[in-house]
User: Fold this.
Amino acid sequence: GNDVNDRRSISGYAFRVFGGTVAWQTRKQQSVALSSTEAEFVALCNAACEGVWLRRLLEDFGVVIGGAVTYFEDNQSCIKVAEEPRDSRRMKHVDIKFNFIRELVQEEKISVKYIPTDQQLADIMTKGLPSAAFARLRDELGLKSSRN
Assistant:
């Protein structure tokens, strides 16, 4: 976990629509994850909840979302669990989240794709980064420094 005091992980996500960042969040997870896969899976579930809401909002405005919304994940074990066609014994203690994500994947409402860690935009919200990496991710998200 990211927090040295309670070992809970920090989750973060950002949503981009038509190239612009429209929603983002960073927060400490409610419980201690037993593995990095579990921490990433909990973060994916949080992002998917927001994504379902955003999709409905866009549809209310008449924007048609064709196909699955892509979620980028840098943990390949998390992707495998999300796409698992049967129950995963490794994740049975997060069963509701597992079933929620699996259902979204099976219904082709979301797809979970691998992205290398150095390209994961959400990392700006979950960990300390060298200043060059921070500036690059900040710029890719379309955010501006408050100093300028």
Summary: The beta strands are 10-17, 20-28, 69-73, 110-114. The chain has one domain: 10-127. Residues 36-60 form the longest helix (25 residues).
